[in-house]
Specification:
heterodimer; A: 136 residues; mainly alpha; 2 domains; flat; B: 76 residues; 434 Repressor (Amino-terminal Domain); two-stranded antiparallel sheet; 6 helices; 2 strands; elongated
Chain lengths: 136, 76
C-alpha cells in the first residue's frame, strides 16, 4: 500500500506534477503543430512528436492514480469508484464500437478518442452519485 | 450492510464552534469527507473514527452509534 500523506499533502504533490504536465502538453501540441509538416516531415520526427505529445498526458494520469492512493480515505473511495465506473463505461463503448467494426457496420474509428472518452466518463461517474443524493 | 452508523459530529462541532472546513483541516481530510461522515452517508475507517473521537475528547462509542445494535438492545 502506498504511503498515506493526508488530503492536503497529497493535493500539493498532485498539483506539482499535474499542472507542469498540462503546460508541457500545451507547449508540445503547439510546438509539434509548428514543427510537423505532414507532407515533408520524416516519419521518425512525426513519431517522436506524437510520443512526446502523449507523455505529459500519461504523466498526468499517473499523478491522478498516485493522488488517489495518497489522499484521504473518502476522496480515495469516491475517485476509485469513479475511475472504475469510467473505465467500465469506456471499455463497454470500445467493445460496442469494436464489434460494429468487426461486423462492418462502421468503417473507421479514431482510437485517439478513447482517452478523452475515458476522462469524460471518469469525471461524470465521479460526480453522478452526488446528483442522486449519494456520496460515493 | 446497507445502513450507516449514526453520529453526533454535527452537535460536537457546534459545541466547539468549528465549521466543516475547520474540522476537515484538523483531521487532514476534505470538507466533503466531513460532510459525508456527518450526514451518515459514509462510515469512516477505525483510525479516522478514533481521530475524530480523540479530537473531541470522547470515546468512539460516544461519537458513533450503530443503529442495528440499538435495535437489538431494544428487542431484548
Amino acid at each position: 500500500m502506498a504511503q498515506q500523506f493526508g488530503f492536503n499533502a497529497a493535493r500539493k504533490r498532485y498539483h506539482r506534477i499535474f499542472w507542469p504536465a498540462m503546460i508541457a502538453y500545451v507547449v508540445i501540441v503547439l510546438g509539434g503543430a509548428w514543427i510537423i509538416d505532414k507532407q515533408e516531415s520524416p516519419t521518425w520526427l512525426t513519431a517522436t512528436v506524437a510520443v512526446l505529445t502523449a507523455l505529459p498526458v500519461c504523466l498526468a494520469l499517473w499523478a491522478i492514480v498516485r493522488w488517489m492512493s495518497e489522499t484521504d480515505e473518502y476522496t480515495r473511495i469516491k475517485h476509485l469508484k469513479g475511475f472504475a465506473r469510467g473505465a467500465a463505461i469506456t471499455i463497454s463503448g470500445v467493445f460496442v464500437i469494436g464489434f460494429l467494426q468487426l461486423f462492418e457496420v462502421i468503417e473507421n474509428f479514431e482510437v485517439f478518442w478513447i482517452g478523452p472518452a475515458f476522462f469524460l466518463s471518469y469525471g461524470l461517474a465521479t460526480c453522478a452519485p452526488g446528483w442522486f443524493g449519494k456520496t460515493v | 450492510m446497507g445502513r450507516f452508523m449514526e453520529n453526533i459530529i454535527r452537535t460536537l462541532r457546534a459545541e466547539y464552534g468549528w465549521s466543516q472546513a475547520a474540522l476537515a483541516e484538523k483531521l487532514d481530510v476534505s470538507r466533503q469527507s466531513v460532510n459525508a461522515i456527518e450526514t451518515g452517508k459514509y462510515d469512516p475507517s477505525l483510525p479516522l473514527a478514533f481521530a475524530i473521537a480523540r479530537l473531541f475528547g470522547k470515546s468512539i462509542e460516544d461519537v458513533f452509534q450503530d443503529p442495528a445494535a440499538t435495535e437489538v438492545k431494544a428487542a431484548e
